[in-house]
Amino acid sequence: MRAHLLPPLLLLPTVACLDPATGTPRVDVEVWVADQGAGELIVWRSRDPGGADLVADAARLGDGFAPSAVAVDGDGLLVADFATGALTSLTTDGAVLGRTRVDPAQAVRLEEPCAVRVEGAHLLVLANDSRNLVELTRDGEVVRELGAERPLRSAHGFDLLDADLVIVASSPTTPDAGLLGIWDLATGDRVSDLARWPRLEEATDVLALDDGTVAVADWWTGTVSRWDPSTGERLEDLGEGLAHPVALDRGPDGAIWVLADDGAWRIGDDGAELEAPLALRWPRNLAVRAVTPAGASPPR
Q1: Which CATH architecture has domain 28-290?
Q2: How far apart are CA 244 and CA 241, in angstroms?
Q3: Model confidence pLDDT, tens digit, residues 3-37
Q4: Positive or negative CA dihedral for 225, 232, 174, 147?
Q5: How far apart are CA 253 and CA 264, in angstroms?
Q6: Could you give the 3-state DSSP secondary structure of residue 59?
Q7: The pLDDT value given to residue 156
């Protein structure tokens, strides 16, 4: 089913198949968007950019389905439901493969998940209402929890700086708390606070980059900026004038993809460009992956 088209005059031309910075063809991608307000998971494909396809909704996954986070999970997807806290594994065409919930025998809550990540056989889930980050097995067994002793207040997104070090993006809470917090997953300690308000006004997501810096989305100012997590220095603005950027992901070619109110933006060497104009009700999260032709090796 085709859906979510903006008026035709707002659609981008489809002839630009080369990267302006390198002159080489761009990698074809699929961009999966969790639209919590519409209760829909949709996908936009760069090969067919005229609209988006519906992958999952309440009719397929049950009344009240409210997708608040999505991540690529092997050949499929992992989707978090804001209302129930369930983590659903899907094929790319929306068939349910299985569900993960926290084992109720464990004294760990997982309420209102807002970001997910697949790490090998384990799942990492950031939850807004229970104010924690939980590492789970596929069977729902809690491996470790961050936030049990010191809650992650008003957290929105996270990424790993290394195997045990996580950086969390959040809303401003107290004057002495930074909007970027670095935590040690092994000890549960908050290692450092960066970017106190108003250097950032509403950090909605953070993305670790290959050079050791991080990209940060600021919902209020409409910017995506690059920071050094070791010093707390704001290095540069990567994108400006975006309509409430809420989530970030890396493309297979190294570009940064940004979910905003008006669709999915791509930030590459040529700057920020609205690649996928979409009509969304309450966009929450996105995941990007390469489209590999049959028989070909995936791009590195």
Answers
A1: 6 Propeller (2.120)
A2: 9
A3: 444 433 333 333 344 444 444 457 899 999 999 99
A4: positive
A5: 16
A6: helix
A7: 96
CA dist., res. 291 & res. 287, Å (int): 13
Phi, psi for residue 8 in degrees, rounded to 5 = -55, -35
3-class DSSP string for the chain:
CEECCCCHHHCCCCCCCECCCCCCECCCEEEEEEECCCCEEEEEECCEEEEEEEEEEHHHHCCCCCEEEEEEECCEEEEEECCCCCEEEECCCCCEEEEECCCCCCCCCCCCEEEEEEECCEEEEEECCCCEEEEEECCCCEEEEECCCCCCCCEEEEEECCCCEEEEEECCCCCCCEEEEEEECCCCCEEEEEEECCCCCCEEEEEECCCCCEEEEECCCCEEEEEECCCCEEEEEEECCCCCCCEEEECCCCCEEEEECCEEEEEECCEEEEEEECCCCCEEEEEEEECCCCCCCCCC
DSSP letter assigned to residue 14: S
Both tokens of 9, joined, read 């005059």
Summarize pLDDT for 63-77 with one digit per residue, the tens.
789 999 999 999 999
What does the block give as tokens for 297?
A: 């090796």
Residue 58 has φ and ψ, to the nearest 5°, of: -65, -30
* 235-266 tens-digit pLDDT: 999 999 999 999 999 999 999 999 999 999 99
Q: Which two tokens stand for residue 179?
A: 């909007």
